[in-house]
Amino acid sequence: MSGTPSKFNGRGIISVAGYVPYRRLDRSAVAKTFGSGGGRGKRAVASYDEDTTTMGVEAGRLALKSAPTAITDQLIFATASPAYLDKTNATTLHAALRLDSDVPALDFGGAIRSGVGSLRLALTGNGATLVVSADTRTGLPTSSDESNGGDGAAAIIVGGPEQGAVIAELLGASSITEEFIDRWRSPGSNRSKQWEERFGETKYVPIGERAFAGAIKQAEITAQDINVLAVTGMHSRACKALAGKLGATNAVAADDLTSVVGNTGTCHPALVLANVLETATPDQVIALVVLADGVEVLLFRVTDAILTFCPYRSVAKQISNGADITYGKFLAWKNQVTIEPPRRPEPDRISASVSGRTEDWKYAFVGSKDRGSGALHLPPARVSRDGGALDDMEPAPMSDVEGTIQIITIDRIAYSPSPPITFAVVDFDGGGRLPVELTDCSADDLAVGDKVEMTFRKLFTSDDIHNYFWKARPVPPA
């Protein structure tokens, strides 16, 4: 099959990456607290300083690092849990990823289907598109949504051979839309609701069979040609029922990641697809079937380019590198309980004008380097500390540069959404020193000399304005 061109002119996936937050909730902790709920396994939990925007940045960074020569003509960001309404969230990703100003950045939001929908539009469109999706899922304490949900993000670079090496070529696609009430959430609510499960199954399964049949007909293959089958959606009962009716008897069921990450809603199809492609082999046919207010089916054939595709940090590696949190801290981070904050005034909102003037530093962590002496300045400066040269600087991107901890301080007094704060003075490889806040770590496990890397996070929120900046976290073990 590898020599047969698809009907989509070779368009497909150039790079893919998933982002799994560092923290995990052991589901058994729920029942230990309330006497009910929970279950087996763990779910991924976004930290108090993470939201869908910061996780989207992390996924986008990983996808771009895995395909450093790929072109980006536009950025699409999809989430059912946006950090902002009215304001475009994708512009923050655009700034943090240092995309050119003429690259459009657009939001697809409000519905779980927006994740796979934006991917489908990119695959059947033109040019190169960076499709980023993210979600934070929760529910009332002891609910199945609370335990079975998960937080995460994924990013996929879509294009044709002219934009980069395509690792998974689109063979066929099919979409069916039908209006029925299965899952819903009103604006401002932190929980979604679901209709009786049998009703959803009776609606999803028939249209799922029709969509699948349409996709394999367009691809001119049979169900037996499929090697990996991924059926995803928030309605797990319908997903299982449909998977058994598609006739893909030679296919291996893709790991749906729900036992170790949870169902990540908007980004779950892309996260599952990333996990599949990270271990795929040439000529495999992958079927992605997504149930969300209808059905989307995407069929891919893995190309020989997969042999040279090197994920910067695989989904499996991120899953293995995690640490548990207590159920009480989970409830606090999800705003289900309010804990006593430090008795210090909460910070004022940031200045829009200052933020605009320092965009490269604040959002992309770009310092300045003296062209004459090579002195690196963090934050950027106009006057060099070495020689005093004025306005003779060049940009110094530092977000991908590792550093070494020189001093560690624990602050139990300063305001934080999740006290205490761990600070460190970090010396960056190649020059530059900066005091930064640490995250995704335990102070007891830190030591002078530890290596850290930068990660895009939220410092605080005031007057509904999110103050985004960069923190440092320990470099994961190899």
Describe this structure in words.
By secondary structure, the chain is α+β, with helices and mostly antiparallel strands. The mean pLDDT is 95. A hairpin with a 5-residue loop joins strand 16 and strand 17 (376-377). It starts with 11 loop residues before the first strand and ends with a strand. It contains 12 helices and 23 strands. The strands form 5 sheets. The chain has a 10-stranded mixed beta sheet, sandwiched between helices. Strands 21-20-19-22-23 form a 5-stranded antiparallel beta sheet. It has helices spanning 28-34, 52-66, 90-96, 114-123, 144-148, 197-219, 236-243, 268-277, 315-320, 327-333, 352-357, 359-364; strands spanning 12-19, 23-26, 42-45, 74-79, 105-109, 129-135, 152-159, 168-177, 183-184, 193-194, 228-233, 252-253, 285-291, 294-302, 323-324, 366-370, 376-377, 393-397, 403-411, 421-428, 433-437, 451-462, 465-474. Helix content is 23%, strand content 29%. The chain has 2 domains: 12-333, Thiolase/Chalcone synthase (Peroxisomal Thiolase, Chain A, domain 1); 352-474, no CATH class. It is globular and about 70 Å long.
